[in-house]
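Following up on my earlier message about coenzyme A. Here are the inputs again, as you asked, copied directly from the submission form:
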Amino acid sequence: MEERIWHQHYDQGVPTSLEYPDLALGDLLTKAVDRYPDRPAIRFMGSEMNYRQLGEAVDRFSAALQGLGVVKGDRVSVFMANCPQTVIAYEAIWRIGGVAVPSNPLYTAAEFAHQAADSGSKVVICLSMMYDRVLTALPGTELEHIVVTNIKEYFPPILKVLFTLVKEKSGGHRADLSGEPRAVWMRDLMAAARPGPEPVSVRTDDLAVLMYTGGTTGVPKGVELSHRNLMANCRQLQAVSPGLREAEEIMISALPLTHSYAMTVCMNHSIDRGYLQVIVPDARDIKGLLETIHKERATLLPGVPALYSALGNHPGVIAGKYDLTSVAQCVSGAAGLAPEVQRRFEELTGGKVVEGYGLSEASPVTHVNPLGGGRNGTIGVPMPDTDAIIVDEDAEATLMAPGERGVLCVRGPQVMAGYWNQPEETADTLRVHDDGHTWLHTGDVAVMSEDGFFTIVDRKKDMILAAGGLNVYPREVEDVLYEHPAVREAGVIGVPIGSTDQRVKAFVVVDSEMPVEAQELIDFCRERLARFKVPKHVEFLDELPKTFVGKILRRELAAAELLREQQES
Amino acid sequence: MSSDRPRPRFIPPADVLPRPAPGEEPIVWFEMPGGLQVGLRPIHPDDRQALMEGFQALSEESRYHRFLSPMPRLSDRQARYLTELDQIDHFAWGIGIRGDAGAIEGIGVARYVRDTADRTTAEVAVVITDPYHGLGLGTLAVQALAVVAATRGIEVLTGYLLGDNKPMVRIFQGMGATFTHAGPGLVRAEAVLQDDAPGTLGEEACAELIRVAGRASHPSAPRSDDPDQRG
Ligand SMILES: CC(C)(COP(=O)(O)OP(=O)(O)OC[C@H]1O[C@@H](n2cnc3c(N)ncnc32)[C@H](O)[C@@H]1OP(=O)(O)O)[C@@H](O)C(=O)NCCC(=O)NCCS
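Thanks, got it. Here's what our run produced:
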């Protein structure tokens, strides 16, 4: 690509442009199987699968999906927590030209239903603990088959027995599929399937994933990502970390694989390079994660600031119980990385923690700090073949000078084709500029320094950054609160906790005739929203602050909250 | 940044058909480029019920753009606030069309509320019910509002709008507004009222708008110090 001011900051050996072979994502796995059949591909709760075994499982499951009638272009929902079956599901869908539609494992039936219905998914692959939710969602969707798997399937034998005895029932992992002709166990399907699928020609420009993301107003839209988009993003990631050794690194996949970040940075990247992926089912189990890093001698730990902060502040870490020095590289995304969190984690591991930036619409990574000369507080510089500009915030048409704030626009091989069935939203987000190129308008407000480092100064989309890098749109939560008969007015904001995360707080005005407890409203939300979106606190007010003409400004609520906290401390 | 689209045509009171009954409250009529006739008159307390019904008829998007909140109901208290106006510091045009039975049916409201700290500034809000979007009514309503505001010593009109509210951004741009960031997804528009702003509607229309608005604030007779006299 043409020379750009930020290229001067690239680490030694990092090219400004790459060659992208015409590969589909399935080809990346095939190549890894050919080259490293005996190297471990996945480790999960102590059990292991090498690349040959992973390849075989994918072949078999893709044949099984064909048996269910999945053909090229069909959408298949992946409603899964992190476990080996999630990787198998993605890869099997891709092998036969299907389009994976990942849904966050914390989603409620209604949230899942929206994604399954909007995408027109024909099949869903889910964990047994989501089965009830899928059944509830079923009527509004076109789902013809429900493929269910129990998280214990790939546990080592002893753990499996223990899990069955102790945790399976209480944890809601037991599902009874009888009486539902559309439901089938993944295990049974695979046992009955042919060892490999009918070959399907999958091309690099075919659609691979519909990744749902909220818009400005929080109504989810399906981001269309092609095999090329996702493959290119893997290659760009590799290019910016030249020190990583093929088939040697040990990756921790702790963030949800149903999110674009972990899907690309943890899973696809690992498979492309023959790394070992250590899959962690729940990133919130900090102690378990520490033990895993320690035991597996993990080298790569993609995360979000809150995760690094939680790991760094864990009492066991402070007591020196865990050896984290194997960790060489951490790319932190989703929110600003506080200097003290970065410093602390770098000290603990002796590795590098760099902040990056991305969005589902870009597969997702577009910016990252150079390992050698990163700048704290910035999102770094655009990756190879990625161009970035800042335009004015009103019309989003005028180029802003370095140092001036404006909307960040990017382009590159990782940028989506558009939003599924949303031509207007697509035209609004992917705009052709006077230079003749199509630019992705990220909606985030940023500044570029004179020498090409980018800093996010504001999110244009109104959202709360909840723990684990998950986004919560205030409007979604307000919508639910307003469904409660006692609620007259509701305003939802994110209240900062520590340096990075925010917790969801609701301010409500209730009908004086219908007294209601905060807990009742929280429970009400819990039934209708994924856990991370549920307000942690509800405060009752006589009236919400409004502008003269009656508009509710969430920032006024946030300002009042901040003021009060300052007064209290 | 004025638009080249055809403008609404003012219908002088003498030409309004059917002729208003004696004692009927005056309405200022315009004919839109597509032929639709719309009338503007000041909102008063009797409009509370109609306002609440109009609110219910709005799409979720329109409601969200107007109140920046997905509120499904308008509280009684708010409905009163939005209809019990002093007509000077808080003024609103109701926009209506002739319904089937000849009765006037409300399809929109445009209001300003003077800033308590800075009396030369007022915040604007406008809403048109969804089936009537894109016909130029929002633009007309805001222009008619600006005409009245100017006679009340208001020099600057402001508004909070979502950055993706293109029609409202266009309307403010048409008044030469500047925009500043006001939180995630939100902008604050600020338009300094131009002396020739009424020009877009024509002098005759402006005079009639001012007369009708003035009558609402002084139902009896206009006082001599009435700023309306400035014309
Ligand atoms: C904002 C609102 C009042 C505009 O009313 P309207 O009658 O539909 O608007 P108009 O027909 O006068 O159009 C205004 C401008 O927006 C443009 N426009 C209208 N619809 C548009 C659209 N969907 N996309 C882009 N531009 C659009 C028009 O072309 C016009 O621009 P122009 O003068 O340069 O030609 C109306 O959409 C509404 O009630 N929205 C909900 C409430 C709200 O948003 N209020 C504003 C904040 S208080």
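One observation from looking it over: Chain A has a mean pLDDT of 92. Hope that helps, and feel free to reply on this thread.
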